[in-house]
Give the backbone structure.
Amino acid sequence: MSRRIGCIQIVMGPAGSGKTTYCQAMQQHMPSARIANLDPAAEDDSLPYEPSMDVRELISVPEVMEELQLGPNGALLYCMEYLLEHLEDWFRDELDALEDEEGYLILDCPGQIELYTHVPIMRQILDRMQQWGYGPSMVAVFCIDSAFCIDASKFLSGTLLSLSAMVALELPHVTILTKCDLMDEREVERILEYGSAQAIWDREQDRQTLLRRTNWNNYDLDVVEPEPNPTTISPEEKERIQLLEDRRLRRERLTQSISQVLDDWQMVSFVPLNIRDEESLDHVFSLVNHAVQYGEDLEVKEPPHDFDDDDGPM
């Protein structure tokens, strides 16, 4: 089955995770790639690229906020629902205009994470794209700020977000750690080398144990105070302390269970990206292309010869 477009990257992730910067870096790495903006909340001067398709030509968040008196989140959901209603008479026509078997398209999607996890709007849009014949070319690229790696709880949260999007969208999936050029490379590599969510969480627990004790008076972990003497506290205070301890143990068991699930299935792996490093860009580009076998069925173009066949190469 021939492809209508060679590869379509569906770039998603939380707000501020570097999606737009990633899109720009990919286009600079492959100048023939085209970028389509599907974020109706993007500001006029915020896009560092010239979009080949722009949803703001159909509808935009500022317009909806002004006309319907909605907040930013409600306006964005309204815009995406409006896009869903106009897939046939706008989005499909725009996609068809970009059709090219060897073409490369990058969709810069909104940063409202519920669109990919528990609100089915993006899933419905992608399902329609598959019905139109673009399915074999589509790959989901989930961007996560590499700062999530430094904090164990944020690391687990980011992993669950990526996993939720993977399960909800049912597409080939690549998770990218963005902004690695802004982080300590050794720290990022050290976290990724653990290879286990449980190991990362255990390391964080050990660190917390070494650095500080629990302040039983207000449960503020940032305050170092000696534990209370059990003989001098009231029964009510003992009950409160026990309640806090039980709550902490329940949270710890929940986190351990989540970490165990992530380790057992190992469905999420992270690919660090440093946009200032050409080798890093090439590595990410190759992984994304491999997810949909882009380029494997393209014809090899032989370079032109500047010499006659009779003479042979110099």
